[in-house]
Every structure is written in C-alpha cells, then in structure tokens.
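User: For my dataset I need records formatted as: sequence, then structure tokens, nothing else. Please produce one.
Assistant:
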Amino acid sequence: MDILDFFQLNAGKWFTHRTTQHLMSHQSRGSQSTWLIKWLDQQSMEIHEACQRMTIASHSILGGLQVTNEPMASNPASKGKSGQPPTSLLLVLPDSTQITRGQILQTASVKKGETRYHFGLDDSLTVVTQYPEAFSEERIWFASPNLRLRSTLVKTTDETSLVSFASEIRLGVPQPKSPSEG
C-alpha cells in the first residue's frame, strides 16, 4: 500500500467506538460516533477553493479528505451551529522531497496548530499536531480494509495527559478500489 492508497481507503462511512483514559484522574469513558469520509482528488472543486482561500497552489496538494461527523441518534446535540453535522476538509500537502511525509492542513480548525504526517513502512499513518498549549500524536492503521484502528496520546503544557483507542468499522459501503486495482 502506498500513501495515496492509504488516504483513499479512508473513504466511506465509519462507526467509531472510542475509549479514552485520563491518566491524571484515572477516569475512563467510552464514546461512539459515525463519520462520513470522502476522498477528494487534486482537481476537485473543494480542493481548488480551499487552496485559493489558503493561498496554496492546488497542484502541490496530494488530495484531501472531507470529514463529516454524523450525529448519533442518542446525541442530537452533536450537530453544528447551522443544524448540520460539522464537516471539515483536510488537505494533504506532501513534503517536496518525500511524499510519505508532509503537512495536513485543516480548513475548519478552531485551534491553530501545525499538523504533520508520516506514512510508515508498516502501512500506518502517524499524525502529530503541535498547539501552543498541547501536543497530540495519533497513529492510524487498517487491520483489514473494513476495520480501521486509531491510538491517540494528548499532552498539555500543565502535564495533563490522555490516551485513547478507537476501533472503526466501515458501514454498508463497499471499500473503494485502490488505483493499483484499476
């Protein structure tokens, strides 16, 4: 699998079950959500418009992920201010010398931080975000085409830490074919 295959494999509807452990307070909680993820190639209108707003050349973008957090029936309050589910666009900007490393730019980010990615030889993606008051590291990998796993570590400047693990199951949407499958 290459980096493009990895990002394209994320496309689909995913049910997420996450367990989060607050290390200082020893409290644990579980949560569930549904995500709709759409892969956008370099020529898509959404990528082009986002690049214009961010003053980035669209040809330098590998592509992007349009991510919508669909509210669970048990939590209708998770809709955005407009009454619609919150959606963000993640642009994948590879380093000029190595496509397996680069930046992820988020169009709907409330907090300002720098997000970098690294695609490993084990077909996992490590995403590191540095904010002025916190640091997060997330590792994402596929156990199978329809089972995605994520582990996350978040540390704040006041030494508060939390860790989480999420298992995500693709819902009812056939997996997209990778470019190598034709």
